[in-house]
Amino acid sequence: MISTLLINYEEAVAIILFGIGFTMLLFHRNLVKKLIGMNIMDTGTFLFLASMGYINGRKAPIIVNGVQSTEAYINPVPAGLVLTGIVVSVSVTAIMLSLTIRLYKRYHTLNLDDIYEMSKSEMEDR
Amino acid sequence: MSSRFHKWLTGDYDVMEKVYDIAEARDMTREQMKKKNKEAKEKLDRRREVQRAAQARTRGFYHIYIGIAIVSCITLVGVLLFCIANLPRYGVENPRTVEVVKRYVEKGLEETGAVNVVAGLILDYRAFDTLGESHVLFTALVCVMVLLRLDQKNMTSRDEDYYLITSDKYYRINQDPIIRTVCFVLLPGILIFGIYILLNGQNGPGGGFSGGTVMGTALIIFAEAFGWKTVDKFFSKKRLMIITFISLGFYAFAKGYVFFTGSNHMENIIPKGTPGAILSGGLILPLDIAVGMVVACTMFGFYSLFMRGTIGGND
């Protein structure tokens, strides 16, 4: 397994990045750090897609000098998928950052546990 | 600066507290100020105590949670690495994916008229996917507007002061001749570079998303260097909405029309042009421009909303 992982090293690095992001999501209580972890997860996904489309010794799929054979270019499909992923990542990051700002304005802290405790006590006061 | 950021991230420093202090310090004597600071400190200490008690209560649960989290993270990474080890070799063509790629690469130039195969892919073969992406961006902008926009109805005095600091006072304090001169020289170049990327999406790397982002960045730099008031004169919220609506509507209408009249590329009424020229690729160039407008407006809108809670000043 280790030798095949060394051959597929780019995909392995992408998975490790994904794992780092997932771990950050689970272990940090700070909302901004959770967001950073999610962005690292996104990066891992993009790297995985881009490396799946890559073929050794071939060029980007822009037709030059009328060469129109599949042997000359890499796979163009993952590029389109990565574009979709980047747009969704930007949108999700923006929405989550604005939610964080609203929470911070109300509770003056970024710690998710503290926010939960404070909101619970607020509910009890009501 | 970095240490203050670190303090804020770890929860020892509150950015908003200082802002509020400035707001309330105007009509307050020194004694009142001291008393208020003491009260605030006591309140903070009490809050910390409550937090510590809550942490002590949930400690047992937290240990279980940490254990489950470690196990699930290691399992996830292990399973995924096992899958990676069984994938086809990196950098070698996978015969199972070739069929679709063959059609895109070999017929793409005739069918879409775009030299850049990826542009033909995302704006012709899979154009509705890109329409969905633009709508995702627009929806995100609307969500951020709902969450962060400050107008006369929901603005408290604290928010008002914060808002003022990030718009007018801030600008007057930071009126830097070096930044203004550098931006004066660089901005036309940045804008022209953005337009170049936007218009050459079908001939090379680029297209609506990247070009739109560069143009939005140019707008942001303009606002930061020459003041938000200058931008507000020509870029209001209403105008942003009109531009976005026209772009998205044009995209949906044009692509829908071509989809219903020229489906399967039997007979397309829009000429393809010479491959490699700017006016080529049929609908790809107008669609690129529409997407670029949406992206530029969204980027500027995000920045403006995060920076000062409004687009285009008081409305």
What would you note in describing this structure?
The complex is a heterodimer of chains A (126) and B (315). With 126 residues, chain A is mostly helical. Chain A has a single domain (2-125), classed as Helix Hairpins, CATH 1.10.287. In chain A, 74% of the residues lie in helices and 0% in strands. Chain A is built from five helices and no strands. Chain A has helices at residues 2-7, 9-27, 31-53, 77-107, 112-125. Chain A is elongated. Chain A starts with a helix and ends with a helix. Chain B starts with a helix and ends in a 7-residue tail after the last helix. Chain B is an all-alpha fold and 315 residues long. Chain B has helices at residues 2-10, 15-24, 30-57, 59-85, 98-112, 117-125, 127-148, 157-173, 177-199, 208-226, 228-234, 237-261, 284-308. Chain B folds into two domains: 2-64; 115-308, no CATH class. Chain B is built from 13 helices and no strands.
Question: How is this fold's topology laid out?
Answer:
The complex is a heterodimer of chains A (126) and B (315).
Chain A: H1 2-7, H2 9-27, H3 31-53, H4 77-107, H5 112-125
Chain B: H1 2-10, H2 15-24, H3 30-57, H4 59-85, H5 98-112, H6 117-125, H7 127-148, H8 157-173, H9 177-199, H10 208-226, H11 228-234, H12 237-261, H13 284-308
Helix pairs in contact in B: 2-8, 5-6, 6-7, 7-12, 7-13, 9-10, 10-11, 10-13, 12-13
